[in-house]
Amino acid sequence: MAKNNIPRHVGFIQDGNRRWASDHSLSKEAGYARGIEPGLLLFEQCKEYGIEETSIYCFTQDNTKRPTIQKQAFSEASVAFASEIVRRGAALLVVGDETSAQFPASLTEFRQRQGVGMKVNLLVNYGWEWDLAGLKNGGLRSDDVTRLDLIVRWGGGCRLSGFLPVQSVYADFYIRDEYWPDFDPQHFEQALAWYKKQDQTLGG
């Protein structure tokens, strides 16, 4: 695919971990750890394609209403994924409310971007209202995140679920029915091929 047909910034909503676990006769919380390895495959794939920036939904403030065992599982999975992509050279920014007890303390240093590789924005304990509330003090709390070109969602849901509402304003939205732990690199290849055919005039 020609370089000028590659989106500069891609967002990922990796849904379906709990449903995948239930379908495999596992406890719901077991699905989160199964999402780490697919995430690393996708991270490497983005680097290969020359994607400049990615934003990844880890968990939201609404997700923290789930049972404690699930909260612990998705928090641990988020930290494990963050640690590994940093080791692999990501320029990591974590976007989320670090003042809350739900925010993993080990990720606090990444509330300011660290590293010089492909930009990766992890949404951890993120809420769209929390983000927009920053405007009262002069800017979005996600103001270091640029406008999205493409959003890919797994799990069949056809909604943003509060994902970076300002940066998503002109994003193309590609849906996969497969649950996230069943990720295959072809999913992203097909998303990029679909994106190539979309009207990218941004209303002009």
Short description:
Helix content is 30%, strand content 18%. It has 204 residues and is of the alpha/beta class. The chain has a six-stranded parallel β-sheet.
Describe the structure.
By secondary structure, this protein is of the alpha/beta class. It contains six helices and six strands. It has helices spanning 17-23, 30-33, 36-49, 68-87, 128-132, 185-196, and strands at residues 9-14, 53-60, 91-95, 119-126, 150-154, 172-175. It has a six-stranded parallel sheet. It is globular and about 45 Å long. The model has no long low-confidence stretch (mean pLDDT 95).
Helix content: 25-40%
* Fraction in beta strands: 15-25%
Describe the largest sheet: 6 strands, parallel
- Overall number of strands: 6
Uncertain runs: none
Helical stretch count? 6
Features:
204 residues, alpha/beta, 6 helices
Write the SSE topology.
Layout lengths: L8 E6 L2 H7 L6 H4 L2 H14 L3 E8 L7 H20 L3 E5 L23 E8 L1 H5 L17 E5 L17 E4 L9 H12 L8
Parallel strand pairs: 1-2, 1-5, 2-4, 3-4, 5-6
Helix pairs in contact: 3-4
